[in-house]
Write a structure and sequence with these properties.
With about 130 residues, the chain is α/β, with parallel strands linked by helices. The protein is built from 4 helices and 7 strands; from the N terminus they run βαββββαβαβα. The strands form 2 sheets. It has a 5-stranded parallel sheet, with helices on both faces.
Length: about 130
């Protein structure tokens, strides 16, 4: 069985440096072809556009700024994504993004990878 994220190009929105590095390594260990880390929403005007990514892991707050508008852009571009955050208001997410999985910090690497794989249709819900 190939790694769950085999060949995927993953966008990681995470402002905590060590968490971003851990997430990048987790994705690479599961076969991700490329991992792009964005630590500030000002960096999200991505040169190649959102369609250059197969999936995204989105922290709800980057430097104190909500990422929900950006998440809407991901959904509009058809990019599967999950939220990974310690500042989660489940009702806020559920109202705007009922279909998107939230993995709360601190999370295990297995939970995070499984959620991304599920969002991409590469794993079955338990």
């Amino acid at each position: 069985m190939p790694p769950l994220l085999d060949g995927l190009r993953i966008l990681v929105l995470e402002d905590e440096f060590l968490i971003a590095m851990d997430v990048e390594q987790l994705c690479r260990d599961q076969g991700a072809a490329d991992v792009t880390i964005v630590r500030d929403l000002a960096e999200t005007d991505l040169r190649d556009g959102l369609s250059s990514f197969d999936a995204a892991i989105v922290d709800l707050m980057l430097g104190g700024v909500s990422t929900l508008d950006f998440a809407g852009r991901l959904r509009g571009a058809g990019v599967p994504f999950i939220f990974a955050s310690g500042y989660a208001d489940p009702e806020e997410i559920g109202g705007s993004f009922p279909e998107i999985r939230l993995v709360t910090k601190p999370y295990s690497g297995d939970d995070l990878i499984e959620a991304v794989a599920l969002a991409c249709g590469r794993a079955k819900a338990a």
